[in-house]
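Example 3.2
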Amino acid sequence: MANLAGFRMENIKSQFPYRRIVVTGGAGFLGRFIVNRLNTFPDVEIVVPRRSEINLVKGEDVRRLLSSARPDLVIHLAAIVGGIGANQKNPGTFFYENLMMGAQLMEESRLFGVQ
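Structure, written as tokens:
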């Protein structure tokens, strides 16, 4: 990052208000870039949930994630994806699971008081 609206990067780093951040999809292509960038901020703890441990489609799993991580911020990048063939064979499944991940994360984050 260079300058943002006249702020120098050093000022943004020192004024970054979040300390605990959950990044779903943080191990993916875009997620790795975001996590690396977040790691440049001082005193930030980043939690990257793994699909093998947390099913973001299930409300109880999302509650467990938020309860243990206690994030100030959630960045949702996780998605069920596939190539053209997989998308053609499973459009309803992909749509449903991606929709439910977003809905569960927004609602549970709201209930937990995530900013």
